[in-house]
Every structure is written in C-alpha cells, then in structure tokens.
Amino acid sequence: MAVLSLEYQNRILTIPFTGTPILGELLAQQGIQGFSPCGGMGKCGKCAVVLKGSVSAPSQAELNFGTRC
To answer: How far apart, in whole angstroms, are the C-alpha atoms of residue 33 and residue 31?
Structure first.
C-alpha cells in the first residue's frame, strides 16, 4: 500500500491508498475541500505539488503537457 504524506494547515497528514487515485478525490475523502477551484482542469495552479520519494515515470502526455496528471 502506498502512502501520501503532506503538510496541511501546519500539520503532517499521512493518507494510505491503493491503486492510482486522483489526488483531488483522495484529499476530498479526507475532508480537504477547495483543492482545485478550476475543477481539475490544471488552469489555476492551486493543485501544484512537489513529488518526493518513489513515483512512477511521467507518461508521454504528461511530458507533453509539462505537468503530472
């Protein structure tokens, strides 16, 4: 099982997950709302994150777009 760790409101949250969930949906399940004001379209930049640790290689579409989806 993978674990997402993030700093939110001056505390560290650790969220275990399986598969490849959408980040906004995973956060919403934890009660974190308003993470994506543009509805996940990648236009406002509010959902930008820094990836650390073991992550998959970006897809060709992600490389073309310049962001991770």
So the answer is: 6
CB-CB contact of 7 with 25 (8 Å): no
Tokens of 31: 């009660």
Report how far residue 62's alpha carbon sits from residue 68's, in angstroms, rounded to the nearest whole number: 5
Q: How confident is the model at residue 69 (pLDDT cuts 50, 70, 90)?
A: low
- Concatenating the DSSP letter of every residue in 23-47 gives HHHHHHHTT---S-TT-SSSSS-TT
pTM over 0.85: no
* Residue 69 near residue 61 (C-beta atoms within 8 A): yes
